[in-house]
C-alpha cells in the first residue's frame, strides 16, 4: 500500500488561495471552467499557473465542453489534466487519454457498470446532486468506492471535510481525495486553517492504517 494519499484542492479562484494550498502540501489544484460560484476564466488561470511552484498538478474542470475547447484551454493555461464532470462519452476520454479524469455522480451501484467503458487516468466519485456538477458537498456510500477500485484509480470526493476525510481514507484507501466546499469560508474562498487541517488529516489517516 502507498504511504501517501494525494490531495486535490478544487475550486481555486485566486492566486492567494492557490499559493496557500500549494504551501500547505496539496498535490493538485483544480480550476473550474463550468458554470459555478467558483468559475474562472482561462486568462485568470493562466496567470495563476504562471506563479505556482513546480510539481503541483494543475487540473481544469469541464462540463460537456467541446473537445476542441478542452484541448485549447489545457494548452493555453498549461494544465496537466482535464476533469470531466458532464455526460462525456468514452471516446471523449479516449481522445484525451492519459490527460483525463472522468467524474461520476454516484446515486447507487449502477455507475459501476459504466467504468469499464472508460479509459481515464482516474475516476472521481462524488455524490449525486440535482443542484449542480461538483462542489455541492454531497456525499455517498463509500462502500461503492471500494468496489470501484477494481476498475482503476479512485479519487474520492463529495462531502469531504477536515472532520471526515480521515475516516474516508481509512475505509476506502483511495488514490486521492478531493475537496472544494469542505475547506471554504465562502463559495470560492478557501479557509487556510481548513485546508491545512484537511491535508494533515488525510495524510495522517493513511499512515495510521499501515
Keywords:
TIM Barrel; eight-stranded parallel barrel; 210 residues; 10 strands; alpha/beta
Walkthrough of the structure:
By secondary structure, the chain is of the alpha/beta class. The protein has one domain (6-209): TIM Barrel. Helices cover 34% and strands 21% of the residues. It has helices spanning 15-24, 42-51, 67-77, 90-96, 142-148, 165-172, 192-209, and strands at residues 6-9, 28-32, 57-62, 81-84, 100-106, 122-127, 154-156, 176-179, 184-186, 189-190. The strands form 2 sheets. The chain has an 8-stranded parallel barrel, surrounded by 6 helices. It has a two-stranded antiparallel ribbon with strand order 9-10. Strand 2 (28-32), helix 2 (42-51) and strand 3 (57-62) form a beta-alpha-beta unit. It is globular.
Number of helices: 7
Distance between the amino and carboxyl termini = 8 Å
Quaternary state, please?
single chain
Order of helices and strands: EHEHEHEHEEHEHEEEH
Which homologous superfamily in CATH is the superfamily? Answer: Aldolase class I
Radius of gyration equals 16 Å
Form type: globular
In what order do the strands lie side by side in the largest sheet? 1-2-3-4-5-6-7-8
Task: Write the CATH fold name.
Answer: TIM Barrel
The CATH architecture assignment turns out to be Alpha-Beta Barrel
Give the tally of structural domains.
1
Biggest beta-sheet profile: 8 strands, parallel, barrel
User: Helicity range of the residues?
Assistant: 25-40%
Q: How many distinct beta strands?
A: 10
Identify low-pLDDT runs. Answer: none
Estimated share of beta-strand residues? 15-25%
Query: What is the CATH class name?
Result: Alpha Beta
Overall average residue pLDDT: 92
Amino acid at each position: 500500500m502507498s504511504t501517501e494519499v494525494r490531495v486535490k484542492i478544487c475550486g481555486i479562484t485566486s492566486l492567494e488561495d492557490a499559493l496557500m494550498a500549494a504551501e500547505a502540501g496539496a498535490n493538485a489544484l483544480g480550476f473550474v471552467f463550468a458554470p459555478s460560484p467558483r468559475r474562472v476564466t482561462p486568462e485568470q488561470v493562466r496567470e495563476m499557473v504562471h506563479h505556482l511552484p513546480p510539481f503541483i498538478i494543475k487540473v481544469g474542470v469541464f462540463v460537456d465542453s467541446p473537445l476542441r475547447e478542452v484541448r485549447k484551454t489545457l494548452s493555453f493555461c498549461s494544465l496537466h489534466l482535464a476533469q470531466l464532470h458532464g455526460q462525456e462519452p468514452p471516446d471523449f476520454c479516449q481522445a484525451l487519454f492519459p490527460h483525463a479524469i472522468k467524474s461520476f455522480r454516484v446515486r447507487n451501484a449502477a455507475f459501476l457498470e459504466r467504468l469499464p467503458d472508460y479509459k481515464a487516468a482516474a475516476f472521481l466519485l462524488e455524490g449525486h446532486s440535482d443542484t449542480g456538477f461538483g462542489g455541492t458537498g454531497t456525499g455517498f456510500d463509500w462502500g461503492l468506492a471500494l468496489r470501484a477500485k477494481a476498475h482503476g484509480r479512485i479519487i474520492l470526493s463529495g462531502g469531504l471535510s477536515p472532520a471526515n476525510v480521515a475516516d474516508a481514507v481509512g475505509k476506502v484507501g483511495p488514490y486521492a481525495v478531493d475537496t472544494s466546499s469542505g475547506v471554504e469560508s465562502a463559495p470560492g474562498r478557501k479557509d487556510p486553517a481548513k485546508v491545512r487541517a484537511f491535508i494533515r488529516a488525510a495524510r495522517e489517516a493513511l499512515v495510521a492504517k499501515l
